[in-house]
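Just curious. Protein, please.
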Amino acid sequence: MNATNMFNLTGKVSLITGAGSGLGRVFCETMAECGSDVICADINETWAEETAGMIATYGVKTAVVKADVSQENEVKALFQKVHQEFGKLDVLFNNAGLATKGAKLDEMSLEDWNKVISVDLTGVFLCMQQGIKLMLQQKRGSIINISSILGVVGMNPDILATSNYVAAKHGVIGLTKSAAAQYGQDNIRVNAIAPGFIEATRLSDVEEDNKKQGQGSSTRVTELTPMKRLGKPEELKGLAALLASDASSFITGATFILDGGWCAW
């Protein structure tokens, strides 16, 4: 196959959770640019509709579904709609997530702990479970789970203290490896992307919130990043296209770090 054609997703169906903003919107646009039909799922239906409107210019079929990924009944309804309207699912981006304000472990409320775990980890589990059931019917598919550098390393609490987020994102990488091992023989590939500090994302938003509380500093973040800047959301497009397409047909169980060198120290 021609190298350029490897990235062609024409005729494919992609589902992105958390599609209404940030990286979710970028992933939707990437899939549409590569020719895939796109389902934009988000707890905020208005935001998801905005994303769908933006990518409609690529001439692909789009759909919008309001869904809270922490609720099993809503996740099941989401995938039922995918099956009814599109008949299959080729690519799943588990991107939906949230973060709470910074707090050290002994100061964190159970409410904040459960809030993050239910969306950032249980939500990924629920969507993987339903997505895999559809992909097993066609004996192929690609699942891309969005973790974080905080799923790979810890964090200086003076910059960012967020144990619930760290635990959830480590869990996402564990789920990724486990599913890759279980479903590789079914030609279902499962990989993770671990972004660092990216402009206009949950991690940068929480860091900014900590800064307002005197707990962190954007300057320190950039100082500790070898490339001396935050990443841009569009800088994840290339990797997203790679993992969604046949260009990564022998890649599974891997975690790809995009952090400007943060983890290289």
Observations:
- The longest helix spans residues 163-183.
- The chain is about 40% helix and 15% strand.
